[in-house]
Specification:
Helix content is 42%, strand content 15%. The protein has helices spanning 29-41, 57-69, 87-101, 120-132, 146-159, 182-189, 219-222, 226-230, 233-249, 253-262, 277-288, 293-300; strands spanning 3-5, 12-14, 16-19, 46-48, 76-81, 106-111, 136-142, 164-168, 192-195, 269-273. The protein has an eight-stranded parallel barrel with strand order 3-4-5-6-7-8-9-10, surrounded by five helices. A two-stranded antiparallel ribbon has the order 1-2. It is globular.
Length: 313
């Protein structure tokens, strides 16, 4: 599988990354190992996790897999820390993640979400010290707006701290806010992008005809907060248009939605979560699917990019 440079981090990542949020939460260790084995053997080298996933279970499972397969130097390991972003908390959380993963360094360590009370200089200083100590290779942020990212990197520049080299935003056919501002900013400044939720937590598969059909054990059942993001009239309309295009093209809706995201060259790696090997197989087939410009345009017309000013800055 082709790889792309991740910003100026010196790392190269596969076009598809493995999102490991399901490990230890929706699937057990045996199935997690099978998914990682398949992904790794298909050339996927970016493994994304977080200290919060499964209460640490995701990191522990990945750690045992890395040790068993002796493949640490052949993957790019990405993890995240939740607030508060004080020096003390970042140091402690990083040590805990390293212990669970049973590794001596994490390639990309991200702030999991924006914290309005973040002590900016203390946060950027703590991450810089962790880079200098060799515990992390590069730092980044997830779920930040472009204004928040720019603030962080301006502070880093003014204080000779390490800047954020990568971002992890949500991006899919009905969540397109980053097109207007974040993606252009990252492209202009050489910042890597590893987007997540290309199928909208399963929403874009078309298996949710309305807000009342929630399957037991599905992402919307396990993490009901996703419903507020996706269950809107305009999004259900977009899914219906996607299903029509799927029928006309003879291509599964989930594969079309994945191919649309993978077709955006401003995104370096698309994180795909999985509860079975088939989900990774589908993503790989989507990567191999070269959409004609007309079909790419029709998919884009299923929804409209939201005005970034509508989000909290």
């Amino acid at each position: 599988m082709n790889q792309r440079p991740l910003g100026r981090s010196g790392l190269s990542v596969s076009r598809i990354g493995l999102g490991c949020v399901t490990f230890g939460r929706e699937i057990d260790e045996k199935n997690s190992f099978a998914i990682m084995d398949y992904a790794f053997n298909q050339g996927i080298n970016l493994f994304d996790t977080a200290g919060a996933y499964g209460g640490g279970a995701s990191e522990r499972i990945i750690g045992r897999w890395i040790r068993d397969r002796a493949c640490r130097e052949r993957i790019v390991l990405q993890s995240k820390v939740k607030p508060p972003y004080t020096c003390e908390h970042i140091r402690a959380a990083l040590e805990e993640s390293l212990a669970r993963l049973a590794v001596d360094h994490i390639d990309v360590y991200m702030l999991h979400e924006f914290d309005p009370s973040m002590p900016w200089e203390e946060t950027m200083s703590a991450l810089t010290l962790s880079i200098q100590s060799g515990q992390i290779g590069a730092s980044g942020c997830s779920n930040f707006t472009v204004a928040q990212l720019q603030t962080a990197n301006d502070i880093a520049k003014c204080n000779a701290f390490s800047r954020f080299e990568a971002v992890q935003p949500m991006y899919n056919l009905v969540a397109r806010q980053i097109e207007a501002d974040l993606l252009p900013y990252c492209l202009d400044n050489g910042i890597g992008v590893t987007s997540y939720s290309p199928l909208g937590a399963g929403f874009l598969t078309g298996k949710y005809p309305n807000a009342n059909n929630i399957y037991r054990g599905s992402r919307f059942d396990v993490a009901p907060g996703h419903r507020d993001i996706y269950f809107t009239p305009s999004n259900f309309d977009a899914v219906e248009r996607l299903k029509l295009l799927s029928t006309r093209a003879g291509i599964p809706a989930s594969r079309l939605a994945l191919a649309w995201v993978l077709g955006n060259r401003s995104v370096d790696s698309v994180l795909v979560g999985a509860t079975s090997v088939a989900h990774i197989q589908n993503a790989i087939e989507a990567l191999q699917l070269k959409l004609e410009p007309e079909l790419q345009g029709l998919l884009s017309s299923c929804s409209s990019p939201a005005d970034p000013r509508s989000r909290n800055q």
